[in-house]
Amino acid sequence: MRRWFWFFIVVLLGVAAGLYYGWVINPVKYVDSTPAKLRSDYQTDYILMVAEAYQAEGDLDLAARRLAVLGDSPPTEVVRQAMIVAAQIPYADSDQDLLSQLASALQTWSPEGAQP
After folding, report:
1. What is the number of structural domains in the chain?
2. Is 0.85 surpassed by the pTM of this model?
3. Are residues 83 and 68 in the same domain?
4. 17 near 25, Cβ under 8 Å?
C-alpha cells in the first residue's frame, strides 16, 4: 500500500512540474498569426462563419473584407476552395448551402469604388 501512495505522489508531482513549466516558465507565444496560416479545415470553418455573418447582416463588402485576411486570392476563389473542403469533410447541408449562397453573391460583387 505504501508503494502505491508514493507512486501517485511522484506522478502528481511530475504532472504539476510539467504544467508549471508549460504555463509559467516556457509558454507558447504566438506572434503575428493570421487566419491565412490555419489548416484548410479551420479556414473553411472561418469562411463558414463569414457566410453566417453575411446571411445575418447582408453586407457583402464586409464579407469580402473578412475573406481578404485569408490571402491574396479573390474572395470567390476562397469560398470555392472552402466549398470543396466542406464537401469532403462533409459539412451539414445547411452549412454547404450558406457557402454556396455566399459564393453566388460574390459572383456579382465588385469592390467599392471600382468601375463597372
Report:
1. 2
2. no
3. yes
4. no
